[in-house]
Amino acid sequence: MPINREMLRSMNISEDHYIGGKRIASTDRFEVRSPLDWSEPIANMARGTAEDADRAVSAARQAFPEWASLSAAERGTYLRRLADLIERNTDRIAETECLDVGLLLRSLKARLVNRGAHNFRYYAELAENYEERTWSSKGTVNRVMRMPAGPAVIITPWNAPFMLSTWKTAPALAAGCTVVLKPPEWAPLSCSILASLADEAGLPPGVFNVIQGIGEEVGAALVRHPDVRRIGFTGSPETGRFIAHAGAGNLVPITAELGGKGPFLVFEDCDIEAAAEKAALQYDDAGQVCLAGTRLLVQKSIYDNFASAFFKYTDAHVLGDSREDHTTVAPLIHPDHLQRVEGFVERARANGDKIVRGGHRTSIGGLWYEPTLIEPKSNESEIVQNEVFGPVLTIQTFENEEEAIALANSTKYGLSAIIYTASAERAERVGRAVRAGTVWTNCFLVRDLSAPFGGTGISGIGREGGDYALDFYSDLKTFQVKEGTTE
Ligand code: NAD
């Protein structure tokens, strides 16, 4: 699908790093292409080196004492200014991310970019309103102080780079850390816009830095850097392991928000139509969503009714140009990723798993893949056990609640789960029993920023969201004064 490269050029998005308040190039560059039109690059970004990583961390280290010494309200003024600028630039950011990642333009405009602005406003307010816990014991007054931890490195994946980068950067800055952000190399452009907006918002040089490049190169150098005090990571479990090792090397706390293989449990007492409609939405953004409920687990007694309602919705999907309003399924981000998704389906076919729907590239060519539904031969099939991160769901049946829970908990992941039932008691029982950081009942993707967010098993380490994130980006200090000794 032809894209307007002139329009992109007219947006003047810098291809360089943003370090210490300045745009800085690297000798090497890497190409970025659009999943909507792979024919020519849309950008040639600076390819950061270990030296660049060192430069960025030093800028963050130098800026840290002054930023940390500001009150939360003073930092909040900068963050709110940045939120205003994000809102004013919604179209520019959404159009860029649509070309860079292929995400649907209407959802970028309606949800993801606004959420970026909201992340900054929300954390500005939360940090300002922090009340130090204070209590008396053993003749002393005790207080819990949040001390800014130091320079933080934040590394984000390609599936929603703007939203995820702001989700981690906002609490870090609000808590008084300075930040070096490393955006994903497959989709680096919206974070370059974020750097320009931070500059326009007047953030002091070095408080927020963006360094572009390849994960194994500049990313690895950043997480190993001895001056880094926190690492906030979102990405795959494989990279998460590497990040955890790197953090351990310097005894630096990390959070890791990793992959998912969420169960979507459909009980016989539920609103089948509502469940089927939501299940069909799991193909949104071509299934490149960590929280997606990719394993449909349906009670046997309603399987036929559920399946026919589900197909009614999935058959209405429109694959096509992510900029068009009527498109519902986006392309995959990269030919390598398309091949990876295809590999999963081919191996499932060879394994004897039944391809119920889809299972091929589409007739429109490019990087689109058919929404695919697979009935696995057994629960041990690779297609059930491993994250595909594409438009591929599996469907299995269960007889009763016990079996449903056993199937739900049968993978190594534990990021999210979705339950459809009309029974509050069942929701409570199953919700407690499933292994997941977030459980949605009769809904999906409703997010309240004050809730803890993260995964168990290989889906993650630690929690972000609300006060959990502000605690993570702080060193908590216990401050005690002997009662009656000060006035
Ligand atoms: P990835 O792990 O390949 O890359 C993520 C980021 O890590 C990129 O910026 C990459 O450059 C960087 N990186 C890669 N190797 C590195 C290294 N050795 N050192 C430092 N940085 C390195 O993941 P991806 O393919 O970009 O994203 C898809 C994965 O992210 C999926 O597993 C998905 O489920 C997960 N994800 C999780 C969440 C969540 O909130 N739990 C959200 C979105 C995506």
From TrEMBL:
PROSITE patterns for the chain: ALDEHYDE_DEHYDR_CYS
Gene3D superfamilies (alphabetical): Aldehyde Dehydrogenase, Chain A, domain 1, Aldehyde Dehydrogenase, Chain A, domain 2
Keywords per UniProt: NAD, Oxidoreductase
Keyword NAD recorded: yes
Signal peptide stretch: none
InterPro entries: Ald_DH/histidinol_DH, Ald_DH_C, Ald_DH_CS_CYS, Ald_DH_N, Aldehyde_DH_dom
Pfam families for this protein: Aldedh
Limits of the Aldehyde dehydrogenase domain: 27-478
Family statement: Belongs to the aldehyde dehydrogenase family.
Name of the protein described by the UniProt record: Aldehyde dehydrogenase
Organism: Ferviditalea candida
